[in-house]
Amino acid sequence: MGALARQLTRSPAWLGVLAFWVGLWIAMRRYPSEFDWSYMTISSLVYPDRDPGGYAWAWAGIVLCALGGLYWSAVLLCGQRQLPPPERAAGAWALGAGFVCMVCCALLPDRFIPVPKGHETLAIAAFFGICIGTVQLAFHATKRSLRLRGHDPTGSPQVFAGVLAGTALLPILLGGIVQAYVNYARPELPWVGLEWRARALPVYLSFAFWEWTSCAVLSVYIALLCAVGIDGPQATRYGFT
Q1: Using CA atoms, how far apart are residues 225 and 139, in angstroms rounded to an integer?
Q2: 170-217, pLDDT tens digit by residue?
Q3: What is the 3-state secondary structure (H, E, C) of the chain?
Q4: Mean pLDDT, to the nearest integer, of 9-15?
Q5: Deepest in the core among 81, 107, 110, 150, taking most CB within 10 A?
Q6: pLDDT of res. 195
Q7: What are phi and psi of 154, to 5 degrees?
Q8: Which whole number is the average pLDDT over 78-93?
Q9: CB 169 within 8 A of CB 135
Q10: Would residue 154 be called left, alpha or beta, if left means φ above 0 and alpha means ψ between -120 and 50 degrees?
């Protein structure tokens, strides 16, 4: 019964990730013209004027993903209350804050956000919160696994945990570098779109390519964190529950 309860606790998170991708896939299928993900950003799918037949599916996937992740974050945070502050995983707070911003971005109308480009600001905050939380939790989960296998948590295993967790940041880092390069070296280019493909511009210069790749990598990391059970009974010692 305990194992079943833990699995049910984790299921909203990976079901939310699944809903996110299903919603975006249906929105792509309903897009009024050709949709090439490597040259078209996710935002193209969430506005009624751009994707009138599919935007609702994209928003539904985003909302379900945010709610599932928020529930999972709340469970992680509740499980840490019995631990002293130094042993708590700060990544759970960052993850929760990211999903809160994601829910607000999806559900709050523009008139309720008294900030210029409020939705864009919330979307960026959500992305960074989820990214930071995922990386930090992955780092702790890797250290926990090494400890359970009898490895010294310092030295090489510590470096290995850092590299494994930091891999989630690689697409985001590359995307930022590429975007800075395009803004500096190719300012004449329009915002990324099918025009880029028509000009035979390399896909690795496309912001859309790195945006989709980053979302895919973060989704895999979240699914793996749910699979390994960072809220399991062995995690208490390492600041998860």
Answers
A1: 10
A2: 888 898 899 999 999 989 999 899 999 999 999 999 999 999 999 999
A3: CHHHHHHHHHHHHHHHHHHHHHHHHHHHHCCCCCCCCCCCCHHHHCCCCCCCCCHHHHHHHHHHHHHHHHHHHHHHHHHCCCCCHHHCCHHHHHHHHHHHHHHHHHHCCHHHCCCCCHHHHHHHHHHHHHHHHHHHHHHHHHHHHHHHCCCCCCCHHHHHHHHHHHHHHHHHHHHHHHHHHHHHHCCCCCCCCHHHHHCCCCHHHCHHHHHHHHHHHHHHHHHHHHHHCCCCHHHHHHCCC
A4: 75
A5: 107
A6: 93
A7: -105, 170
A8: 65
A9: yes
A10: beta
Q: Show the tokens assigned to 152.
A: 């010294």
| Residue 87, token pair as written in the block | 């042993």
And the tokens for 34? 């050709």
